[in-house]
Design brief:
- The protein has 104 residues and is mostly helical.
- The chain has three helices and no strands.
- The longest helix is centred in the C-terminal third of the chain and has 40 residues.
- 0% of the residues are buried.
């Protein structure tokens, strides 16, 4: 047992949480993660259960948990179709600019 003046034993990089990792340790911490299909599935499962227990499975719930899911869905769907929207917008502006340039 550590006395009052002693520092606790250092935690190995593998066992640290992401927010506890220093910037210099980040590459080695990332390389120690499990990127197999079962490891990725486990990470998503842990994230889902943490979210569910924090925002959905509570005594006095609110709309905040569902709102975050909807906001993530909107951002994801917008980013997925952004290239299409940007191409359309640029084509529209270019054609309008060309039309005005011909007659003025």
């Amino acid at each position: 047992m550590a006395s009052v003046g002693e520092c606790p034993a250092p935690v190995p990089v593998k066992d640290k949480k992401l927010l506890e990792v220093k910037l210099g340790e980040l590459p080695s911490w990332i390389l120690m993660r499990d990127f197999s299909p079962s490891g990725i599935f486990g990470a998503f499962q842990r994230g889902y259960y943490r979210y569910y227990n924090k925002y959905i499975n509570v005594k006095k719930g609110s709309i905040s948990g569902i709102t975050m899911v909807l906001a993530c869905y909107v951002l994801f769907s917008y980013s997925f179709s952004y290239k299409h929207l940007n191409t359309y917008h640029l084509a529209f502006l270019t054609s309008e600019h060309e039309r005005l340039r011909k007659y003025h």
